Amino acid sequence: MKIGVIGAGSMAEALISGLINGNVVRPEQIAVCNRSDRSKLMYLQEHYHVTVTEDKKELADRSEILILAMKPKDVEEAVLTLRPYVKKQLILSVLAGVTIETIQHLLGKKAPVIRAMPNTSAAIRMSATAISASGEATMHQVKMAKHLFETIGMVAVVEEDQLDAVTALSGSGPAYVYYFIEAMEEAAAEVGLDQEIAKSLILQTLAGASEMLMQSEKQAGQLRKDVTSPGGTTEAGLEKLKDFQFSEAIIACVKRAAERSREMQSGGQAAMEKVRKA
Ligand SMILES: NC(=O)C1=CN([C@@H]2O[C@H](COP(=O)(O)OP(=O)(O)OC[C@H]3O[C@@H](n4cnc5c(N)ncnc54)[C@H](O)[C@@H]3O)[C@@H](O)[C@H]2O)C=CC1
Ligand SMILES: O=C(O)[C@@H]1CCC=N1
Q: ipTM of this model?
């Protein structure tokens, strides 16, 4: 399987790192191009030994899968310059808020397109990814995409209209967790803990809680109650989280991110209109 990656940013690197370090594909099976920043290409070549090129034709000709990994605002230019070289390749987009219809419009044909929403934990093969395929994608191509993402984490197959919600939940999700950890680190300093010790305690606590949920038949709410002794420390701490409307804040966060994904989708439709009128 030969893969061409268009856009050499954070998500591209996470995918490349997961695929290569997990021995899923060999470096020579991956070629990457970027728009302007050549240093990023040099970095990827040096670290992962992938092929780098500035020539989209060369990239497309050698690839069976073309991964779109630029920012959504750049999709129009990227796909229009790629368009002459797209023949039978499967187009695999990781772009937030850019629909299959928009991509097919920019390509000027009903090419097989699979939208995926992974997250940056792909770098260590722990991504939570959801995929959705266009009707043009063959069963083989869907299986191939599913397999690709399964090798770097777990995969859920969803309807395309679910992808805004997925993006808000697990695509952006690592950032919420890192934000929580940053706050825990700040809290640890305020209660007088050494920074390094605090960091290991926080990370093991998160990993342990997450693993408990995976292994246990109990739901999160029950496991929380198991920790919370009546009149104890946890109850006192949780009261503060309630005072500051922790749940409401998380719900508002995910809802706003999903809404933003839908707004970005409207941007993509405007680009599609522009191409249609040109
Ligand atoms: N960063 C994340 O956690 C996740 C990002 N995504 C999606 O992945 C995509 C990329 O995100 P990041 O990697 O964070 O962005 P980034 O800004 O780090 O990387 C995008 C890269 O694409 C390049 N690029 C732009 N136009 C191009 C063109 N015409 N041809 C070739 N390269 C071009 C840019 O030079 C840049 O290096 C976005 O669409 C985002 O929605 C999806 C899931 C998670
Ligand atoms: O922030 C973003 O728009 C992208 C999509 C999911 C994670 N990062």
A: 0.98
